Amino acid sequence: MPRYDFSCSICGARFEQQVPFSGDLQAVTCPKGHRQVRRIYSVPSVVFKGSGWYVTDHRPGGAASPKTESA
Question: Which of 24, 37, 47, 54 is the most exposed place for a label (fewest CB within 10 A)?
């Protein structure tokens, strides 16, 4: 179940709550009981590890594609 960040429009409280994918975000209340909350969007953290990524496997100097022989 995903966790979303919310902010209360009345008291300014910031909190995190689990809401199912099919859940109603309008039913979320702040810890003080206020119903006027808005979801805060944030950038997900992504870590690229291992080989196979452009930065680690890119050949500098613009290497050309392999040449093929014509018949």
Answer: 47
